[in-house]
Amino acid sequence: MVDLDVIGSVMCNKDSDRVNNWEQIFKQGLQKRIDGHKFTCMMRKVMFGCLILLFVRDDSINAVKRMCTSKVKTGAGGMAANKGSTSIRFNYEDTSFMFLNCHLTSG
Predict the structure, then answer these.
(1) Whole-structure pTM value
(2) Rounded CA gap, 47 and 25, in Å?
(3) Which residue segment(s) compose the domain that 52 sits in?
(4) Which H or E run includes 10?
(5) Number of structural domains in the chain
(6) Are the C-beta atoms of residues 51 and 9 closer than 8 Å to each other?
(7) 31-40: pLDDT as tens digits
(8) Hey, is 85 helix, strand or coil?
(9) Which residues on neighbouring strands pair with residue 73, listed in sequence order?
(10) End-to-end CA separation in angstroms for the chain
C-alpha cells in the first residue's frame, strides 16, 4: 500500500487558483486509485512553471518529519523564474527523501 506520493508538474504560471485546482485533481485521483484512502497535501512548492506536491495518506501523516522546500531560478542568469527547479525534502519514519522537479533550457 502506498503511504505517500510525490507529483511534479510543469504549469503555465503560478496563479494560486490554478495551483489549487491541480492539487485537488491530483488528490481526487489518488483517493480513487488507492482504495479510497484519504490523502493530505503536506508540502507544495511552486516556481512559475514548476510545481511539486507531497501527498501523504492520512493514517501516515505522523511518520513524516523534518519537511523543507526549495526553489532555484536559472532563467536569464538566475533572475527569471521561467527555468529552474522546485524541490522537497522530508523524513519518512527513519528514511530521508528528496524529490526535484525541474524545467531547464534545452541544448
Answers:
(1) 0.80
(2) 19
(3) 4-103
(4) strand 4-10
(5) 1
(6) yes
(7) 887 676 888 9
(8) strand
(9) 84
(10) 40
